[in-house]
Write a structure and sequence with these properties.
The protein is α+β, with helices and mostly antiparallel strands. It is built from 5 helices and 5 strands. Helix content is 28%, strand content 14%. Strands 1-2-3-5-4 form a 5-stranded antiparallel β-sheet. The protein binds zinc ion.
């Protein structure tokens, strides 16, 4: 793991925000295609909740769904809201899962606002490989903070861009902010 100097990091990513950056390519391997899971046994979104918060980069755990840092973020602070249950299609979520995914999405916006005060957000689900889902087998709702000038065009459906950042630090700060939401 190679740490970039603050100057070099800001030159690299060019995104004004409150997160420090760290290049963590080893964590992006399974999101970036080659390590794509083939069956439920390899599903990272099923495996993440079994790890502790720090190891799994879990920001918050609900009853039916949890919130995790995206390992291959569109932007710093990019969160994913996932049901614990291995389910691919939004229409197949239970009423309890549907409600909690929505509630956790609202809380994610509140926590991100406390930590880094984004100017806007992209929210959305890419359902299916053809729709741009990196891991289509397990539904996940994106919460992407946006800042003025963070990119000229950032479709929620489309190619991801690697934004190096200190994911551990961001996770800790967002988890603490979440605690304070009350
Ligand atoms: Zn799964």
């Amino acid at each position: 793991m190679a740490t970039l100097s603050p100057e070099a990091a800001s030159d690299y990513a060019g995104i004004p925000d409150s997160f420090q950056r760290l290049w963590t390519p080893h964590r992006m391997v399974y999101i970036d295609g080659e390590g794509k899971p083939k069956d439920e046994g390899e599903c990272p979104f099923c495996a993440i909740p079994r790890r502790d918060d720090e190891a799994g980069l879990v920001v918050h755990r609900g009853e039916h769904a949890f919130v995790v840092m995206n390992l291959f973020p569109y932007n710093p602070g990019h969160l994913l809201v996932c049901p614990y249950r291995h389910v691919a299609r939004y229409v197949d979520t239970t009423p309890e899962e549907t409600i909690e995914i929505a509630e956790l999405t609202k809380q994610a916006i509140a926590a991100l606002t406390k930590v880094s005060n984004p100017a806007g957000f992209n929210l959305g689900i890419n359902q299916g490989d053809v729709a741009g889902a990196g891991i289509a087998m397990h539904l996940h709702q994106h919460v992407v903070p946006r800042w003025q000038g963070d990119s000229n065009f950032l479709p929620i459906v489309g190619q991801t861009k690697a934004v190096p950042q200190l994911l551990d630090d961001a996770r800790a700060r967002l988890a603490a902010a979440w605690e304070d939401l009350g």
